[in-house]
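Async update (no meeting this week)

Hi team, since we skipped the sync, here's where things stand on the single-chain job. The sequence we agreed to prioritize is pasted below, unchanged from the tracker. I ran it this morning and attached the output directly underneath so nobody has to dig for it. Comments welcome in thread, and please keep replies under the output.
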Amino acid sequence: MSKKYIVLLLVVFCNLHVVQSQDIQPSTLNKNEIQNLSNLCKVWGFLKYYHPNVAKGNFNWDEQLLTIIPKIEKATSKEAISKIYIDWIDSLGEIKTCRSCKEGKPKEYFDKNFNLSWTQNIEEFSAELSKKLKLIEDNRFQGKNQYVSTANAGNVEIINEPQYVNFEFPNEDHRLLSLFRYWNVVEYFYPYKYITDENWDEVLKQMVPKFKTSKNKTEYHLAMLETVVKLKDSHATLYTGPIEDYFGKKFIPAFFNMIENKLVITGFYKDSLAKINDLKIGDVIEKSEGIDVEKLIASYKIYNRGSNNKVQDTHNGYFVTSGNTDSIKLNIKRGNTEIVKNFGRYDIKNLRSPFPKNKEKYKILDHNIGYVDMSYLEMKDVDKMMSDLKSTKAIIIDYREYMKFTPYMIARRLIRTEKEFAKLIQPDLSYPGRFLWKQSETIPPLKNQYYTGKVIVLVNQNTQSASEYATMLLQTGDNVTTIGTQTSGADGNVSYNEFLGYKSIITGLGVFYPDKRETQRVGIKVDVAVYPSIKGIQEGRDEILEKALEFIQKQN
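Output:
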């Protein structure tokens, strides 16, 4: 059993509350109320990161929001609202001229995320207010920001935020504060905001009423989860007790994928539990508690995280089969036979099994083809591995699990000249919302160590983050082919983002190919696509590996 499946099981909380999930609807706020609160979110976040006296940390900025919310809610006109904002800005102190904001060295910007046009919206703000907001932008804070910093890699770090405990279900205004915090971090520091399915401004308008009018902790936590999922980022996760309680803490002992548009069992956590329940690899789940699988999958789509459909497909089985009871009634298709019965569900502690310790890290297959399992190989093994495999006609490098190290010393043996393999963007804290292109990532060859054979890299939806970056590194090789299915599409170092009392993860650094092609959401470039079949799953075949072996034989 692989580590990743336990991780996936913990990441995706699932159950059959399809009716319950559809019944959770926010109370109605009118369009003006939503727009006014959305504008407040934007103004509050803008001042937090731009205003020199606020970004310096001179104010309790959470308390400032809590004070201003009722004033905005009572205001009934654009002029009244603008006056509230003008008075607020004036109370924050003098805005001194920022010469470095105008005279700095030219920078190469990535500006697909940047948008402050809303500050000049004459439909929402008075001319005087828009002028003040523009003045703040032009004389924005420079220096060490109270609320944000950068990690060594350049991704954003959220710092010095007031911490909230026992805020499982805070009051209305604190729930809005929770949303506003999270939304503004994404607005200014998330490198992939521009490729979310829904415009981030529209997400704010959707979520304001859900946060404000949540009737209980379950509704509030589902609203937080929905907000996270809207990033369409495989890194983006949120774990809370109420979410786990809602979706269920018990699981059948199988993991799944969508094969040929059907929900198929592709493996087991424990073979012994699978045998007890008469579950077999290749079984197709058609109904759960009498409800069609397709309906269940659709009903939980707003809670199913992932950069692309391939990642979300691996989560569908958990939404369909998990819950809080000890068993679940499933309709299973096995060949031409339909099985309808109750199957056992188990606590996660009963599904854990030891991680295999003695699995081969690399070996030589038939026809003098090397095979390397990157989920087991360690950096200390590289020199001996490459020495042992140097006379093979090809090496297959398997990245379908999470890796242990970045394979620089392998990649350096696959090139004769220095190669550029990635371009990165990082947030510019001196101009929040804008991103800077970093110096290109390059790799030099290793003298007298060149591997002359072919190299095949295997990938699938579990190839994520560092494994995707590593694949890009290997793809610089002179004779490298990538085979498999679409990867996770979550490339770049992660950062934490926060709701009140609950931390979430987002991708914090933007990663692109040297020609600036995207990797986020679309995944790493695949040269030969392979689509596993139900028949292949049932027969226990590794169709991606088979395609790699076939490809090597045809090339020789």
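Quick observations from my side:
The CA atoms of residues 240 and 502 lie 7 Å apart.
The longest strand covers residues 419-427.
Reply here if anything looks off.
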